[in-house]
Amino acid sequence: MKVAVVGATGLVGSKMLQVLAERNFPVTELLPVASEKSVGKEVSFRDKKYKVISIADAIAAKPDVAIFSAGGSTSLEAAPKFAAAGITVIDNSSAWRMDPTKKLIVPEINADALTKDDKIIANPNCSTIQMVVALNPLHKKYRIKRIVVSTYQSVTGTGVKAVDQMFGERKKELNSGESNYPMAYKYPIDLNVIPQIDVFLDNGYTKEEMKMVNETKKIMRDDSIRVTATTVRIPVVGGHSESVNVEFDQDFNLDEVKQLLGKAPGVVVADDPANAIYPMPKDAHEKDEVFVGRLRRDETQPNTLNMWIVSDNLRKGAATNAVQIAEYLLEKELF
User: What does the buried/exposed string (b/e) look like for 65-76 if buried means 16 or more CB atoms within 10 Å of the residue's CB?
Assistant: First the structure.
């Protein structure tokens, strides 16, 4: 297949190239695409060098699929142009997620909704993806009424600038001297926690929090699920963690919960408190699975479970999910 990766020089775009190679996606021709200032630069893919081309040149080359990770404004402008040329777009930005005419896809949950007519397919927010992958098998069995989630999100969710800020602050702290670094956040992130991801809305929640609320309902195809979120940035390089409190319609058995999660596609149960085994970001690094642990009853109300969910935000939270969508389209001959 002829594959374009739009935003190929960025943090997620680079990860997409890595994941395409690792999963042996049948790329017969790669078209790395980036902004005009990056045209002519080189990226590596399967031990070969490829020159970055412009969006216009990529459309003219007529790839079978274009995987986007270039920001919302670029996606809003460029994705329809690719789609108009008959090219299937899988978009990692927030641009199309809540568009009622576009599908928001996590392959383990709702890939069956896709058809040949879907030319712009939205990839969900990283923090939403890992939560719904873990919750979907439980929703099928017990039916979710309400979710309370607090996230602990790594700096790679912001990008390279945030990683540079954190290590710049750390270097300055260790050396007790000056260190020049960009400021991705308004406040220091090293040795700190920032309870703001994205901008605040009129209701006092951030855009990231409302993404989790709205995307969860759309992916799980159930508007009755009530979701409330608090999203937080922490000084970790990669891997998002979430504390999730979920109330069900029906009661559950903890052993059965573990069995359901253990059999669920894309989920790994790491839950052995006696031996201090639970998911941590370092364990999820460069892995595609969603890790679940700290499974226990909420003793303050009936039918309610507490759980801890961890995943690599650049992989399952972004690149891997997008590539899995492409794999499904290929398998079902939907290109």
Answer: bbbbbbbeebbe
Catalytic annotation present for 240: yes
Q: What tens digit of pLDDT does each residue of 35-78 get?
A: 989 999 999 999 999 999 999 999 999 999 999 999 899 999 99
Taking the C-alpha atoms of residue 247 and residue 244, their distance in angstroms, rounded to an integer, is: 10
* Domains defined for the chain, CATH in brackets: 2-124+318-331 (3.40.50.720), 128-313 (3.30.360.10)
Task: Determine which one of 30, 114, 126, 229 is catalytic.
Answer: 126
Instruction: Give which of 317, 167, 173 is closest to 235, Cα–Cα.
Output: 167
Phi, psi of 2 (to 5 degrees): -90, 120
40 Rama class: left (phi>0) / alpha (psi -120 to 50) / beta: left
Q: Is 126 considered catalytic here?
A: yes
Catalytic residue (one of 139, 218, 240, 316): 240
Residues 6+ apart with CB under 8 A from 11: 156, 159, 160, 314
Buried b (16+ CB within 10 A) or exposed e, 300-315: eeebbbebbbbbbbbb
Q: What does the alpha-carbon distance between residue 144 and residue 249 come to, in Å, rounded to a whole number?
A: 6
Q: State the CB neighbour count (10 A cutoff) for residue 319.
A: 30
End-to-end Cα separation, the chain, in angstroms: 10
Q: pLDDT, tens digit, for every residue of 237-262?
A: 999 999 999 999 999 999 999 999 99
